[in-house]
UniProtKB/TrEMBL annotation:
Gene Ontology biological process terms from the UniProt entry: L-tryptophan biosynthetic process
Protein name according to UniProt: N-(5'-phosphoribosyl)anthranilate isomerase
Record keywords: Amino-acid biosynthesis, Aromatic amino acid biosynthesis, Isomerase, Tryptophan biosynthesis
Gene giving rise to this polypeptide: trpF
Enzyme Commission code(s) on record: 5.3.1.24
UniProt keyword annotation of Acyltransferase present: no
Family indicated by similarity: Belongs to the TrpF family.
Gene3D superfamilies: Aldolase class I (3.20.20.70)
């Protein structure tokens, strides 16, 4: 099972996540308590192993600015977490992950209109687009509507429920942010426990 740790804001957390076995790290460039500057993201990414995917998270940003930040920071993937249209998601220089807030079966229909590298399915929106810490009903993903190879499960995951989430939704990757934090900051022990729990249940590809 592949694991993405989102909301990386410092070098120590990034390097430890890589060491624990994370497959991808997310850097938020949109309004969020985990927002980082392009300069900081570039400094962190420069110290990461090449095999780690570096994902930039954007919300309703211009295509040119996204491309500029991606090139400057050394991103490998672009994650779009706003109201971006299917057409907007096409034509980027890097693979695109489109995020969707899922509350019911009807929300899954929207996903099928997009042709992207991956579909990140998150909980319904809170103050910000993600990181609410509240899971949605994973069982609605059992209808076979979506390509499992593109499915990234997010929203309220932690080390206690990730095995159940994987068993129910059968994603290709799990994504966590607030579920490995203590008082709003990444907790290294929680992060390690989450990665081990996901890998232990889901295998290592």
């Amino acid at each position: 099972m592949k694991v993405k740790i989102c909301g990386i804001t410092d070098v120590e957390t990034a390097l430890n996540a890589a060491d624990y076995g994370a497959d991808a790290l997310g850097f938020v460039f949109a309004d969020s308590r985990r927002k980082v500057s392009p300069q900081l993201a570039r400094e962190i990414i420069a110290q990461l192993p090449l095999e780690i995917n570096k994902v930039g998270v954007f919300v309703n940003e211009s295509k040119q600015k996204i491309e500029d930040i991606a090139e400057y920071c050394g991103l490998t993937h672009i994650q779009l977490h706003g109201e971006e249209t299917p057409d907007f998601c096409n034509g980027f220089s890097l693979p695109v992950i489109k995020a969707f807030n899922i509350g019911c079966h009807a929300d899954l229909e929207l996903v099928t209109h997009y042709e992207c590298e991956g579909y990140l399915l998150d909980s319904p929106k809170g103050v910000y687009r993600g990181g609410t810490g509240i899971p949605f009903d994973w069982s609605i993903l059992q209808n076979g509507m979506l390509d499992r190879k593109k499915l990234i499960l997010a929203g309220g995951l932690n080390s206690d429920n990730v095995a159940s989430a994987i068993r129910t939704a059968n994603p290709n990757m799990v994504d966590v942010s607030s579920g490995v934090e203590t008082e709003g900051k990444k907790d290294l022990s929680k992060m390690k426990e989450f990665i081990l729990a996901a890998k232990r249940y889901g295998g290592k590809e």
